[in-house]
Amino acid sequence: MNKKYPPISGKLPVFMHGANYNPDQWLDSPEVQEEDIRLMKLAHCNVMAVGIFAWSAIEPEDGSFEFGWLNDVLERFRANGIYAWLATPSGARPAWMSDKYPEVLCVGANRVRNLHGARHNHCYTSPVYPRMLPL
Predict the structure, then answer these.
(1) If both were cysteines, with which of 38, 39, 48, 51 could 87 make a disulfide (CB 3.0 to 4.6 Å apart)?
(2) Does this model's pTM top 0.85?
(3) What is the pLDDT of residues 48-93, one digit of tens each?
(4) Coil, strand or helix at 113
(5) CB-CB contact of 69 with 23 (8 Å)
(6) Could you tell me which residues come within 8 angstroms of residue 34 by beta carbon, excluding any fewer than 6 positions away?
(7) How far is CA 63 from the centre of its chain?
(8) What distance, in Å, lies between the first and last C-alpha atoms of the chain?
(9) Integer Cα distance of 93 and 75 in angstroms
(10) 61: helix, coil or strand?
């Protein structure tokens, strides 16, 4: 029962402590991010997951990608000794996709297509959805 396991990463050979972090919700308020990082450090967080549900911030329009905000967040983390887990943003499609390709939305048991807005509301059989994933 006292078996020791090697660290997941040699860069962070300690217990990883953190949470999901969604700075894309307040990109227009950098003071919020500053306070968040202060609180992360106070809570001894050494890693945070970013990019979760951020598809609309990464690709605000079809084929137009914005990574500057993410680079800024990662640089702030680095400057404060915080590592990052990069998450896939596919849990929340951008509204432009639902408008342009309504077939990416789930169809319920009642055969009615869901409205945009719910997380993980994508139709796995849609021929469009897999092509749109920001991989």
Answers:
(1) 51
(2) no
(3) 999 999 999 999 999 999 999 999 999 999 999 999 999 988 888 8
(4) strand
(5) yes
(6) none
(7) 18
(8) 40
(9) 26
(10) strand
